[in-house]
Amino acid sequence: ATMISKLLGLAALVAAVELPDDECADGEGQCALNALQLRGQQLASEDSNSSDSGPKCAPLSDPSNSVCAPVVRWASRGGLYDPHANDWFQDMQDISKVSFHHASLGDWQKLYYCAPPGGKQCGTPPCDCTHPPCNVCSFDSGGGGAAEAKGCAANPDSISCKPPKKALDYNGRAWDPMTVHGFGPFHVFAIGDWGGMDGSLRPIEGRPELVAYPQGAKSGPSVFPRTRWNKAHTKELCDHKQFVACYTTMGMMCDPGCGFVKGIDDQPQTLVASAMKMHAAKKDPAFILNVGDNFYWGGIEKTCGTPMNELSYTAHHQFNSIFEGIYNGKGLDGKVWLSVLGNHDWGGRVFNNGWDQQIAYTWKSPRWRLPAAYWSQHVDFTDAGFTMDIFLVDSNAMDAKDLMKDSEHNICGAEHNPAGATCASAGGPESLGSCKQWFWDLWAANQAWLAEGLSKSKADWQVAVTHFPCGHESSFWIGMHQQHGLDLLVTGHRHDQELWSPGRLGGLTCFVTGGGGGISSEATPNIHNKRDWYGEAQYGFYDLLVSKNTISITSINWNGYEIMTRKVYPK
Length: 571
Known about the structure:
By secondary structure, this protein is an alpha/beta fold. The protein contains 13 helices and 18 strands. The model is unreliable at 1-52 (pLDDT under 50).
């Protein structure tokens, strides 16, 4: 009887989270995760995000604050004594620079404007608070970012010295050359699709919390349960709702087709990060290649248009919880991540999420480098006597489709983008109608830029890093190898680890490192059931051992095991 009651309770819990994919349960309730980018985006006005001086302030009594006013007054008078107050109001110190026990009414209004506990966001910031400015939610990282790079006094026009006015103004530009000392060989790590959901984020703009199942309501990352298909992708083995049930019950009520493995599928990002830490402590990588999908489900959870010299509190929280707090320790501290955006960073099923804030973070962090949608990095291994040119390419046009096509995998789809969506103030698409063409024009610009850059490169190695995986735009990449000398292609997007044979791409070595763990893997990680595996692993990263004459690529599983190696020689 005890077991039956336990299973009935689990069944009720599963039923409680199985909301319609694209609807909210009620006006104030949780939304199904597939509705992350629908609910309340219309609440965000364009001018409130694009103004350099921040939005206009108003007192709590203003009609614009009618939704939040009752809870703000309750919190400031009695709510701060509630047993749950430390959890509810944990963001107060960061946002208002004061403990919630000593916060003024204006401080409380600012909290509910920038990161509203429970979701009842104030419509306007306060005019008075303990530590002005009161009308912005930007976060001061405390220095140490790219803007403090050495050499800025001598070369103030370097893109490393100041952020662009618009997010994409530096497209096609080269970052300052990087020098790596020592005689080598040198380790370089590669990872992608790693950024899980930030369950402790207090969303703004009417967005629901980033929680797909009850255990995801916590600090740090939780994995997004996607779907699983057979290898040929002709039969769905596990849909999203079935997978959510697996996570909710930790496998106790789980369709066998889902292939859920407790202890792996429920914590892949932290497992892969632990393997990276262990490997980094021994190998001391020179830098990390990051192929994108840095934050699931839709990148930075705010509307595009934040001034480029500001970091929103939302972006600060997601970076701290999903990046800074996860990838650290001996061998990783201070190591630069050379990065691109993935389709989920652009918004996944919308184009107007906070992708520009990932670019802005470049000038707030000493190790995050993403100055544009496409850019290049020259690396001089001075003592070892060789060089490398790395071209970081945006290939997300592959998910920019016609308005009514494939709504669940379409950055430019009509179904999920809000009415009037625009990222013109950030240099992105001006409208939904122009979105598809904008992305394909961006891809064309990438192609021309890469061909020219490879032709001009005098480096010993030429490497391209992009999001969409080996097999996409094959003829283009084969041409880059055979006609322009590209030596290695590093990709992601498919949520597994695939080290391709050069013969599959006209002699070009390519690998997919989409198993970083922010989203569930393509197939079950059960090593005794590899029937639907594309590659050699489901969750993991790669270690590149680089010298002047070879790059030895090793696939490393989530548990730290080295499972496959292939060598590349310069063309």
